[in-house]
Write a structure and sequence with these properties.
Rossmann fold, alpha/beta, 5-stranded parallel β-sheet, elongated, 2 domains
C-alpha cells in the first residue's frame, strides 16, 4: 500500500493553509503546525515529512526566518520552502535572505505550487544520489570467522582508494575492530544515534575515532547494556545518515546475535557479504542465521558468500560451501593465520604492512570488484544521470533569484 507523503506547514492563517492543502492534495497530505521550534521538532520526529513550508507573509517573516535557521541546524536533510505572494517583493526577499530551497507563490495557480514542489524534490533527489555513499554489511554467524579483521581491512584499503571510508565496529566480541586498528574511541554507535540531528562534518572529525591511515571507526559502547537505549529503527537511521558522509562504510556484524538488528541493518546495505569458513560448525551456524533472516522477510538471495581462511588441503571447497548455503560465491580468502597474528602482535594490520601478502591481495581484489559492481549497478539502473539535475521551472522565485545573481555579478 502506498502511503502518501506528509508535508508540514508552519502557518497561522486558515485561508493559506486551505490553499496549500488544495494545491498538494494529489501529491500528499499537508499538516498545519504551530510556528514554534518545539512544535516542528515533535511533528517532524513523529511524521517524517518530505518537506516543510514556512509562511513568510507579514507579520510572520521574522518568525519563519528563525524557524528556517532552526531546521537547517537540527534537520539538515529536510527540504524547506517559503510561501507568500510574489506581488509582495518583501516576502520574496525575506525568503531569499533566510535561504529557503524554493518558494511557493500563493498568488499563482494551484498547479504551479505542485509543479514547484515536484521540481525541487527531483533536484534534491538527483543531488543526493550523486553524493550518497555505499554501505556494505559483513555478516558472521559466530565469532572467530575473521569477519572483523576483514571489515577493518576493507575499510583501510578503501580509505586509500577513496579517502572517505568508515568501519562500523558492531561485531562481537565488542570493540575488537578498535583493538585491531590500535585505535581508541570514547564516542560510540549509541552516541551517534543520540546525536543524529547534530551529525555533520565537524562532529565526524572531532568525535569519531580515526585510524592513522584516515579511516573513521564507530564502535559499540564499552557497556553493551547501553545498546538497549536505542531502537533498531534509530540504528538504521544512523547508518542511512552516515552514507551522506562516507564513500564506503563497512559494517562488521561478526558474531552479532540480535537477528532483528541484523535484518534492519542489511535492509540499509547496498551489498551484504556473508563470511564463513570451512568448519562444519560455521556452516551450520550460518545456515541457521540465514533461515532466521528469511523468516523476517529478508531476501537472502541478494547476499553473497565470502569463504575465509580457505585451506586447499581440506576436501570441502568454497563452491561446496556456497552450494550448501545456497548463496552465490563472491570471494575466497586464503588461510593466513600466522601472518595475521604476527601483524596483530605488533599492533598493525597485515593489509597495511604487507601489500604483497596473499591475504592483502585478496582483500584488495574485493575492494576493486566492489567498486566495479556498484558502478555497473548505477549504469544499469535506468536512473537519470546523477550529474544532470532537473532544470528549474519558470517561477517568480527563480526569476527573482536570477535578478539577484545578475546584480551581484555586475556590482
Amino acid at each position: 500500500m502506498n502511503i502518501p507523503d506528509t508535508y508540514l506547514f508552519a502557518c497561522e492563517n486558515g485561508a493559506r493553509i486551505t490553499w496549500l492543502i488544495q494545491a498538494l492534495q494529489r501529491h500528499g497530505t499537508v499538516q498545519p503546525i504551530a510556528m514554534t521550534p518545539q512544535a516542528l521538532d515533535e511533528r517532524i520526529a513523529a511524521s517524517a515529512p518530505r518537506a516543510v513550508f514556512l509562511d513568510f507573509s507579514e507579520p510572520h517573516s521574522a518568525t519563519s526566518a528563525m524557524l528556517h535557521q532552526h531546521l537547517r541546524r537540527d534537520w539538515p536533510a529536510l527540504a524547506i520552502l517559503g510561501t507568500g505572494s510574489a506581488e509582495d517583493p518583501a516576502t520574496l526577499l525575506a525568503g531569499l535572505r533566510a535561504g529557503v530551497d524554493d518558494f511557493i507563490d500563493m498568488a499563482a495557480t494551484l498547479p504551479d505550487a505542485e509543479a514547484t514542489l515536484i521540481a525541487l524534490l527531483e533536484r534534491r533527489s538527483a543531488e543526493h544520489a550523486a553524493v550518497r555513499g555505499r554501505t556494505i554489511a559483513l555478516l558472521g554467524a559466530r565469532a572467530g570467522l575473521g569477519t572483523t579483521t576483514l571489515a577493518a581491512s576493507l575499510a583501510l584499503l578503501m580509505q586509500d582508494a577513496t579517502s572517505r571510508a568508515a568501519l562500523l565496529d558492531l561485531g562481537l566480541p565488542a570493540r575488537d575492530g578498535l583493538l585491531y586498528l590500535d585505535t581508541q574511541s570514547s564516542f560510540s554507535f549509541v552516541d551517534g544515534v543520540h546525536n543524529l540531528r547534530r551529525l555533520d562534518q565537524t562532529l565526524l572529525h572531532t568525535a569519531f575515532a580515526h585510524h592513522a591511515g584516515g579511516a573513521a571507526v564507530l564502535p559499540l559502547p564499552p557497556s553493551l547494556t547501553q545498546v538497549r537505549e536505542i531502537s533498531h529503527a534509530d540504528s538504521a537511521a544512523l547508518i542511512r545518515r552516515l552514507a551522506d558522509f562516507f564513500d564506503y562504510q563497512f559494517i562488521d556484524l561478526g558474531g552479532f546475535t540480535t537477528v532483528d538488528f541484523i535484518a534492519r541493518t542489511v535492509a540499509e546495505a547496498d551489498r551484504t557479504w556473508v563470511v564463513c569458513d570451512q568448519s562444519i560448525g560455521a556452516i551450520l551456524s550460518t545456515a541457521n542465521m540465514l533461515r532466521e533472516l528469511e523468516t523476517r522477510g529478508i531476501e537472502i538471495q541478494r547476499f553473497s558468500l565470502v569463504v575465509n581462511k580457505i585451506d586447499p588441503a581440506v576436501s570441502l571447497t568454497a563452491r561446496d560451501i556456497a552450494a550448501r548455503l545456497r548463496l552465490p560465491l563472491a570471494h575466497v580468502l586464503p588461510m593466513r593465520r600466522t601472518a595475521l597474528l604476527t601483524a596483530a602482535g605488533r599492533g598493525e594490520m597485515l593489509v597495511r604492512t604487507a601489500r604483497n601478502d596473499p591475504y592483502t591481495q585478496a582483500v584488495l581484489g574485493m575492494t576493486k570488484a566492489l567498486q566495479r559492481e556498484l558502478a555497473t549497478t548505477d549504469a544499469n539502473s535506468g536512473a537519470k544521470p546523477k550529474t544532470t539535475p532537473t532544470a528549474p521551472i519558470a517561477s517568480p522565485w527563480n526569476s527573482f533569484m536570477s535578478q539577484i545573481k545578475k546584480r551581484a555579478k555586475e556590482s
